[in-house]
Fold:
Amino acid sequence: GAVVSQHPSWVICKSGTSVKIECRSLDFQATTMFWYRQFPKQSLMLMATSNEGSKATYEQGVEKDKFLINHASLTLSTLTVTSAHPEDSSFYICSASLESTYGYTFGSGTRLTVV
Amino acid sequence: SQELEQSPQSLIVQEGKNLTINCTSSKTLYGLYWYKQKYGEGLIFLMMLQKGGEEKSHEKITAKLDEKKQQSSLHITASQPSHAGIYLCGADFDQAGTALIFGKGTTLSVSS
Structure:
């Protein structure tokens, strides 16, 4: 089946540094990918929609300069958290829509801790 | 504003008991998805419903979508400790391929 590989699964970084999270579609081409954020005991909140070869569409309230999304190929989308701060600590998860079967597949998520 | 209302927020049931989780939308859905998650881990796909009145079952879990495609329920029969986790309903509203919007989730605990 369609698999999205997300890395790293967890990362600890210092305040002020940047962290890159990668999502790769392993056996299909992902024209569109979605990035979500999840706080403890809360649901998934959509951050942005990433389309291959074009600029990402960010949800209201999400800082595009802080959360840089790049979708340069049909198999890779990246989310870079720039100048990370402790409040950016969260669980980030990516998803891709499956045009062939009408469904969605999710990465395994990245737990980011900023210290 | 939250487009999907999920209830209850949390649920504790005794092993062997049945339970139902509801997901209600303020507008017509295109597709409704049920997932299970343990916080900090990925989502486990349970079922997808698209047609009004549709019902699907897998093992002891049954999901239904009402005729108006605005409400779905997830029913677990004879709950087991392995059913414990966070249940999320997600929906796309406009067309296939748009981002899923999720309800706030239901945390299920099963006591033995």
